[in-house]
Amino acid sequence: MATTFDIRLPHYPRGFHLITHDVLSLIPELPENGLLVVFIKHTSAGITINENADPDVRHDFNTFFNKLVPDGAPYFIHTEEGPDDMSAHIKASLIGTSVTIPIRNHRLNLGTWQGIYLCEFRDGGDRRKLSITILE
């Protein structure tokens, strides 16, 4: 059995943000066992799983991706929404749009140091919408 619903996150500024608590607070109690699929409904932000303890990890992610895909590169032609437009789309494609997490004993079966990240690549990003599917 699968249950799917949409949630809307609070606004987050550009950067990498742990949203595990946000997701869990906006969904019903998890089943005893199953899978949780988190899908972001945007092309300029991504979802990933990574370290949830040291904030330096989030800083380093941001630094790396901004060097890898700089805003306003002269070879970008899709720039209608500003210099971070095309770079945000590329970064979102590199990170991806979904994660799948096992559920065990009514809890996300994440590793000790793992958390769900919203990767916001726009300076003026809106409140992001997530589609959540719980598979039992």
From TrEMBL:
A Pfam family of this chain: YjbQ
Taxonomy, superkingdom: Bacteria
Matches recorded under NCBIfam families: TIGR00149_YjbQ
Family statement: Belongs to the UPF0047 family.
Full protein name: Secondary thiamine-phosphate synthase enzyme YjbQ
Originating organism: Bacteroides hominis
